[in-house]
Amino acid sequence: MTSINGMQYHELNLEGVNIRAAVRAGTGDGLPLLLFNGIGASIELLLPFIESLPEREIIAFDAPGTGKSSAPSGLWRPRHYAKLADSLLERLGYSEVHALGVSWGGGIAQQFARDYPARCRRLILAATSAGNLMIPGKPSVLLRMSNPLRYLGPQYMERMAPKIYGGSLRTNKLLAREHARQMRPPSIKGYYYQLLAILGWSSLPWLHKLKQPTLVLAGDDDPIVPLINARILAARIPDARLRVVDCGHLFLLTRAGVLAPEIEEFLSGN
Length: 270
Hints:
- A nine-stranded mixed sheet has the order 1-2-3-5-4-6-7-8-9, sandwiched between helices.
- The protein has 270 residues and is of the alpha/beta class.
- The chain has helices spanning 47-51, 78-92, 104-115, 139-145, 149-152, 154-165, 173-182, 188-197, 227-236, 251-254, 256-267; strands at residues 2-4, 7-14, 17-24, 33-36, 58-61, 97-102, 120-126, 214-219, 240-245.
């Protein structure tokens, strides 16, 4: 275990995969928040959001094939990633958490909440959808998302960020540059395994069975996951509410300071 800037990093072998996980202690006493990151994204990309919640203990991990986690030997489905999260909590000694999933990770968070309801007390779904039955974004954007090029070249990322992510990144080049600087390239194998994992998968048939109070967050200028998908999630999950953010796909980072108090209030059960 190593400690860097208040984050305790763990190297663990779980479900046959070497996983890098991180825990950041909070100043409060509420349940920890487990983060499920976007496709190809490492822990580092969520640091601005993590830092915006100083009171909340945070658990994060690099999904197999991203960051410093090794890729699985074969194709995983969402249930395998959810099982990995369960094994991670077991190894780290947590019996119950809140869960937050962003983009691709939002699908895994839904699967986790369904498969391990006793583990997950509250659920936050950010910039995500019900999976294969989603209302798709612009074809040109989805084509760019279908490959990991944006992770492999910072200059390419800076150039593509406004078109891919929308919102603040359309006009703020410094935000795009900082986002590109934080990126750690995933393995090609790991990225395509994540992409293939959700092909044919949808939570729509069982969203009505989720018991967790759920906060659905969505950007009003999201080229990847149009707002209508968040409205579908909020309508299908029995105890859910929708918060529309004046930004694009990366609002969790660009609007972290604004959203953090609302998220903390939701997690505290108020």
